[in-house]
Design the sequence.
């Protein structure tokens, strides 16, 4: 997948563009303009123009975007065009819930293994096995894993994070409610669910 | 709790300010400036100034913020000063994982009941019971619930959302990967975990 500099807000709107574009027939509508897309989705035109520019450049003057190409570019950006393998450490309740999320694959990520402190491999009646941590480092190196998910508690999150970095992981999705230190070159994305809920609560 | 207009980004930094402020002794440090806080936390001074202004006004010239008052204001804003009751609909894997999250209470929200399509009450060896949907409406009205969490699938999310609105809920946290329609006056916050992961993936 190509490296992208699309903002998280733009990124969040891409699935909507994609759904709409897939519904129209590129034979009948070979080109589509930002104005048309904005109207169809009831979004601001400036926003749509900005979103599409960051994904697929400026479009053709007076014509707009080539429909087929725009679909491809959005799929590429979302990562739907190929599956990136990911691993997860911490197979507690949240970790196991994430392992059952079928949505991830629609967006180009497949959690291929989970790791925990168990000494034997655990098959929890599902798609993904839970492997012992002792196998983590070699597994990541063998499969060239770049994407890791942390669902352990606050107490062991930094240690787990260090193990990921050591194993060659360069993008980490952290669910532990604490600040983690990563070396430069590693992207860290924190997902503090409690804070999200607290923010909603503050708007009551 | 007071209504607040603090941005989500600012909100996300409040726990850090709070942790630091609780560590210093207000007797020794009765006032603290944005500059000092910025230095201690290794954050930009402009950002800290803006964050604190949105929570606790401008501070006193040359002195800064009264430490005790600033702590109180941040706690108030985060909602840690009192517990808001919330309900959850959809007691699948993700729903049950959220029911086990102890972090929510630290941030002022307690999920007091979960609802699902079961006909009898389910006690899943935990703190919160899973009640049948038939009891939802009356439960929310009796307890004056304002905060609801949707963890059902895409197919039934809008229906569940409508039931929440009808029961008097005015803030909804939606985990279903779809767009929901809510009447004006109801705050909707979408949590699309797959998109978050896809965004991280796009930065690989």
Sequence:
């Amino acid at each position: 997948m190509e490296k992208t500099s699309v903002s998280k807000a733009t990124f969040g709107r891409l699935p909507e563009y994609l759904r709409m574009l897939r519904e129209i027939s590129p034979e009948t509508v070979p080109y589509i303009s930002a104005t048309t897309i904005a109207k169809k989705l009831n979004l601001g035109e400036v926003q749509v123009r900005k979103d599409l520019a960051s994904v697929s450049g400026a479009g053709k003057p007076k014509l707009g975007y080539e429909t087929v190409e725009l679909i491809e570019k959005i799929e590429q950006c979302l990562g739907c065009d190929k599956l990136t393998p990911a691993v997860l450490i911490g197979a507690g309740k949240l970790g196991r819930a994430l392992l059952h999320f079928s949505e991830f694959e629609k967006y180009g990520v497949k959690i291929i293994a989970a790791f925990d402190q168990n000494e034997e491999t655990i098959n929890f009646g599902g798609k993904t096995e839970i492997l012992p941590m002792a196998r983590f480092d070699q597994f990541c190196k063998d499969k060239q894993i770049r994407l890791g998910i942390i669902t352990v508690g606050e107490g062991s999150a930094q240690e787990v994070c260090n193990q990921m970095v050591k194993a060659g992981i360069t993008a980490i999705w952290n669910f532990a409610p604490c600040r983690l230190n990563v070396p430069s070159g590693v992207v860290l994305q924190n997902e503090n669910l409690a804070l999200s809920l607290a923010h909603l609560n503050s708007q009551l």
Q: What stands out?
A: Chain A has nine helices and nine strands. The first strand of chain A starts at residue 31 and ends at 32.
